[in-house]
Every structure is written in C-alpha cells, then in structure tokens.
Amino acid sequence: MNLKVATTLDEIIEGWRLVYHQYVAALLIDVNPFSIFTFPEYVSRNAALILGKLNDISICTISAVLDSRKGLPLDAYFKKELDELRNQKKKLIEIGLLASARDGVNPSQTIELLSSVARFGVHSNYHDYVIGVHPRRAEFLKKVFGFHAISEARVYHRLRKAEVILLHADGQHFETLSRKASHDVYYQPTDLDFEHRFQFGALKTLRSLAAGDYFISFLRKLRKQFLPPSTTQPKVQFS
Are 69 and 226 in contact (CB under 8 A)? Predict the structure, then answer.
C-alpha cells in the first residue's frame, strides 16, 4: 500500500466517499445524495487527509485536524477534557475519519495510517494527539502508540449513538516514544508532502475547481446538519 497526502479537492472527496460508504454500511450515518461524509471542522486549512492506494486505487483513508478557535469535532462531547489539555498549553491534533473500501481496516493498515497522519502533527509542531474510538479499540492504541483514556465512554450522537471513549497521547513524552510506531513517526524519514496538501480557500477558488459547486452544495447541507441554526444567512468560512 502506498500512502499519499491529498493535494486536490477531488482527492479530498475521494477520501470522504470511502468514509461515507463504510459509515453507511456500519449504520453510523444516513445515506445522502452526495455519497460523501465528513465533519465541518475538517473543512479547514488546518486539516490533512491521507489516502492509502493499491495499484492507484484508493482503498483506505484517514484525516487529522489541528486545534483552532473553531475547536475540534470531539469538542461536541468531550469539551471539558479537551479544555483541560488546552489549559495545560497542549497543542491538540485530532485524528479521525478512518475508513476502508473493504471490510474495515486491518491492524497493519491501521498502524500505517495512524503513523502517517501523526506525521502531520510533527510537520505542524502539534504533538498532543486525541482520538475518539470504541472502548474495545482503546487497548490496541495504548499498546501500539501509547494512547491512554482521559474520559469514560459516551454516546456519540453525531454517529447514531455510537459508543466512544476519548484517548490522548503526548507525542514527545518518553512513554509514547517508547512505542516503536510512535518512535518511527518522529525519527524515521518520510516522503509525505504535507506542505502541498489541499487547503480550503475562498468560495470563488473552490468554484473554479471541477468539483467546486458539487462540494459547496454538500458543505451547506453538512453545516445545516451539524451546526446550530442561525437567524441570519450563514457564511461559509474556513479556518
């Protein structure tokens, strides 16, 4: 499997289409006419998406987003815990939207994908990784990457009441770096090109792209679904 940082809107949509199909199959979300899924916070200049490719076909994906004034998707249910980390001057990076075109992501692919997107934190100087997972997956992430739970399990209504627990790992802590996978993230070279990743810009820029109007229609529906209603016409902005 070859790993590639998405550099075009088409590649972003390709990754989110993988997420959509796996989440629909797992009964986590409803079908929609766009056949793509993400959270509004990932529509940001602070995000990166990675595709896993086999024979030039995308078979899996993962994303990450840096903390900003708009917050993180996990703030919807774990804001207290995330704010405690922020109060400790932690620079948070959330990892999510892990999906596969097949029957789920196998353990070796999971390690590859998590390791690759964690390098976005290294690239950006954000070293406190947070991720929301089902409780049964927590031990695997603790063993391989040094994550530890900082919350009890909660019902995640954004994904049809899926049970989720919040995990955190300080990428520069000796306990985290003692894990081989985490050590490799920091000390093994990579050719992943985060510098030239696709970064969302102004609406007129998006409209100039082949998939621009299609994506903007999806974005408006997405924000209507996840963000609270406003008495004024909302503006589409990117952090």
Answer: no
Please state, in angstroms and rounded to a whole number, the distance separating the CA atoms of residues 205 and 202: 5
Among 50, 67, 68, 47, smallest CA distance to 59 is for 50
Asked if residues 222 and 34 have their Cβ atoms less than 8 Å apart, the reply is no
Q: What is the mean pLDDT of each successive set of 10 residues along the chain, which is 239 residues long? A: 92 93 89 88 93 91 95 93 97 96 77 96 97 92 95 81 90 93 94 93 60 70 60 45
β partners of residue 125: none
Q: Is the pTM of this model over 0.85?
A: yes
pLDDT value for 232: 41
**184 burial class (0-12, 13-18, 19+ CB within 10 angstroms)?**
middle
For the chain, where are the alpha helices, taking DSSP H only? Answer: 9-25, 75-87, 107-124, 138-145, 174-177, 180-187, 203-207, 212-226
pLDDT value of residue 157: 74
Q: Which fold has domain 2-226?
A: Aminopeptidase (3.40.630)
Tell me if 99 sits within 8 A of 106, measured CB to CB. Answer: no
Q: Where is 74: in which H helix or E strand? A: none
